[in-house]
Amino acid sequence: MKKLISLLLALSLLWIAAGCTQYHARGAGVGGAVGGVAGALLDSKNPWRGGVIGAVLGAIAGATLTEVSMQATQEAVQQNKPVEYRTADGRGVVEAYPLDYDARTKCHKVQERVWEDGKLVKDQIKEVCEGEKSEKKY
Predict the structure, then answer these.
(1) How far apart are CA 38 and CA 13, in angstroms?
(2) d(C-alpha 126, C-alpha 72), whole Å
(3) How does pLDDT run across 28-79, given as a tens digit for each residue?
(4) Which residue has the higher pLDDT, 104 or 65?
(5) Chain-centre distance of CA 111, in angstroms?
(6) Among residues 42, 58, 52, 70, which one has the least CA distance to residue 10?
(7) What is the pLDDT of residue 97?
(8) In angstroms, rounded to a whole number, what is the distance separating the alpha carbons of residues 51 and 59?
(9) Taken in order 20, 26, 27, 28, is the CA torsion positive or negative?
(10) What's the CA angle centered on 29, arms 28 and 33, to 5 degrees?
(11) Rounded CA gap, 132 and 117, in Å?
(12) Quick one: which H or E segment has residue 10?
């Protein structure tokens, strides 16, 4: 039974990682690390089990928060107005405010704020650029 649970958790992590972008992977990594430590500390009878379960749940939460954050930023640029997302329980809030547009570089600046339990946990300015990418390949 323990081998089956370990296999399912490993497959879940691989499935999550396969659909990740660079930003999702970063969010999942931070969430997984924090969740793993918290799970190991909370499960005193079997810290490995708690760590693995905490890491999986943390990785999912981190990747999800990154996805919501990216979506809010893109929406703020497209609509050129502030966007706000809230969790169902109201404990988490993502806000994105369009700030500036540089016609020369075709880049939009967006201020993004993330709140958890009424506390500001992230406040950053992101740049979203339009354009084409060209590379020389042989």
Answers:
(1) 18
(2) 11
(3) 666 666 677 777 777 778 778 777 777 777 777 777 677 777 778 888 888 8
(4) 104
(5) 16
(6) 52
(7) 92
(8) 12
(9) positive
(10) 115
(11) 40
(12) helix 2-18
Give dist(CA 32, CA 26) in Å, integer. Answer: 10
For the chain, the helix, strand and coil percentages under 3-state DSSP, each to the nearest 5: 50, 25, 20
Provide the percentage of residues in the chain whose pLDDT is more than 70: 68
Mean pLDDT of the chain: 75
Domain boundaries, the chain: 2-129
Q: Quick count: other Cβ atoms within 10 Å of Cβ 130? A: 10
Neighbours of 63 (CB within 10 A): 25
Q: How far apart are CA 93 and CA 95, in angstroms?
A: 7
Q: Using DSSP, state whether 116 is helix, strand or coil.
A: strand
Pull the structure tokens for residue 43: 């499960």
Tokens for 110, please give them.
């967006």
**56 exposure class (CB count in 10 Å sphere: 0-12, 13-18, 19+):** buried
Q: Which has the minimum average pLDDT: 16-20, 59-63, 83-87?
A: 16-20
